[in-house]
């Protein structure tokens, strides 16, 4: 495998005797790795180089792995496999509800973990969709993807995260079409939705807080029960 094309795995574990041997094993299997001992270091690495997948220890001092997993999923980040000593089913379900793609219970066999990594990566065949550079208008708002900003004619404005901007662009590309969370997750992150995956729902909620007059009663980004979400507005290109 070409080194530059190999998936980049971020190993986050406070135990040096776990993360370093694990990283060495993954490199021998043709994967690239970055290491982090805590959530602060993990965020720095994700901001600098990103990652194709995160191996994330649940029990860490300071901010724990579940909190970091929730944050990664909410921001539309890479898939996460939790490394957990928790064997109880309820604990595993919590991790999946927070956005994890899979989990491995410690102590684990490296070959099993490698198989889980490859299985998750296979569910990401397509790269994330790209946001167009053209500004567009909808429901009194002007969306500037280059600045990741929305400005309303009445003076309201808000900055968007990269995940929010990509999701809004998907709706602007298909106004009034019902888009399922499964389809949106695959297009935006190149991975399948898990039963407890709430990454899209969380991003929708943040967009509603920025765009809707009353986020509790959305009229712009509407929910289609049993179907998904839709943008209930006409879209025009910037003059």
From TrEMBL:
Gene3D superfamilies: 3.40.50.2300, 6.10.250.690, Winged helix-like DNA-binding domain superfamily/Winged helix DNA-binding domain (1.10.10.10). The keyword Transcription applies. GO terms for molecular function: phosphorelay response regulator activity; transcription cis-regulatory region binding. Residues 133-233 bind DNA. Residues 133-233 form the OmpR/PhoB-type domain. GO terms for biological process: regulation of DNA-templated transcription. It comes from the Bacteria. One of its GO terms (cellular component) is cytosol. The modification 4-aspartylphosphate is found at residue 57. It holds the Pfam family Response_reg. InterPro entries: CheY-like_superfamily (IPR011006), OmpR/PhoB-type_DNA-bd (IPR001867), Sig_transdc_resp-reg_C-effctor (IPR016032), Sig_transdc_resp-reg_receiver (IPR001789), WalR-like (IPR039420), WH-like_DNA-bd_sf (IPR036388). Coiled coil: none annotated. Residues 8-121 form the Response regulatory domain. Keywords: DNA-binding, Phosphoprotein, Transcription, Transcription regulation, Two-component regulatory system. PANTHER family: DNA-BINDING DUAL TRANSCRIPTIONAL REGULATOR OMPR, REGULATOR OF RPOS. This is Two-component response regulator. It comes from Profundibacterium mesophilum KAUST100406-0324.
């Amino acid at each position: 495998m070409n080194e530059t094309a190999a998936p980049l795995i971020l190993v986050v574990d406070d135990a040096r005797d776990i993360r370093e041997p694990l990283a060495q094993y993954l490199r021998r299997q043709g994967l690239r790795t970055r290491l982090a001992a805590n959530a602060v270091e993990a965020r720095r690495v994700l901001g600098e180089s990103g990652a194709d997948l995160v191996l994330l220890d649940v029990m860490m001092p300071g901010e724990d792995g579940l909190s970091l997993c929730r944050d990664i999923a909410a921001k539309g980040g890479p898939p996460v496999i939790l490394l957990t000593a928790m064997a109880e089913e309820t604990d595993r379900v919590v991790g999946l509800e927070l956005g994890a793609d899979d989990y491995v219970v410690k102590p684990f066999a490296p070959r099993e973990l490698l198989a889980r990594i490859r299985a998750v990566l296979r569910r990401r065949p397509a790269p994330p969709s790209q946001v167009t550079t053209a500004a567009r208008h909808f429901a009194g708002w002007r969306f500037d993807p280059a600045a990741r900003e929305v400005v309303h004619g009445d003076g309201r404005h808000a900055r968007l995260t990269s995940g929010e901007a990509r999701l809004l662009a998907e709706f602007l590309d298909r106004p009034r079409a019902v888009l399922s969370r499964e389809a949106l997750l695959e297009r935006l992150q190149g991975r399948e939705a898990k039963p407890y995956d709430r990454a899209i729902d969380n991003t929708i909620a943040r967009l509603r807080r920025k765009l809707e007059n009353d986020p509790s009663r959305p009229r712009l980004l509407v929910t289609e029960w049993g179907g998904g979400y839709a943008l209930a507005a006409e879209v025009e290109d910037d003059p």
